[in-house]
Specification:
The protein has three helices and ten strands, in the order βαβββββββββαα. With 151 residues, it is an alpha+beta fold. The chain folds into two domains: 7-91, no CATH class; 94-150. It starts with 6 loop residues before the first strand and ends with a helix.
Length: 151
């Protein structure tokens, strides 16, 4: 499918530390900037020339994780602007709490918050359970509270 010395983009998975209400993150693949193919390893695997930032990641990938790179590819994310872990998960972090609401489910009261993420694809807003966000992201709540008190 690909030729040696061609450039391909590498697929990374979006990952958030909270349960999401929508499936938007799972259905939208993210690709990081082009890498040169060094060799064909197997029938469906290629070895790529990775940048130093990805030195902990093995350099051999299956075709399903690669996408042919064309000029002006709109799906590519600049590698310098994102965080990627050892398993090629794109780590999105909360930036700001935009809004709060309380949803009622029979007799239960469920506080939710609208969170702005550091997403590189479109609008990065989702509604999350407030208690889950507070457990995993206490800093964002204290920053949001300070900003609102200063206004």
């Amino acid at each position: 499918e690909f030729e040696v010395r061609e450039k391909v983009m590498l697929k990374v998975s979006p990952w958030k530390g909270v349960i999401r209400f929508s499936k938007r993150g799972k259905l939208n693949p993210h690709y990081i900037k082009p890498f040169k193919i060094l060799a064909k390893v197997e029938m469906l695997a290629y070895r790529l020339k990775l940048r130093e930032k990805l030195s902990r990641v093995p350099s051999t990938f299956y075709v399903s994780n690669l996408k042919k790179c064309f000029v002006d590819e709109p799906l590519a994310i600049p590698l310098d602007e994102i965080q990627i872990d050892d398993k090629l998960n794109f780590i999105e972090e909360p930036v700001e709490i935009m809004d709060r609401e309380v949803k009622w489910l029979k007799q239960s009261r469920i506080p939710i918050v609208k969170v702005r993420w550091n997403s590189r694809r479109g609008l990065g807003f989702t509604w999350e359970h407030e208690d889950q966000m507070k457990k995993k992201n206490t800093l964002i709540f204290s920053l949001t509270l300070r900003l609102r008190l200063n206004l």
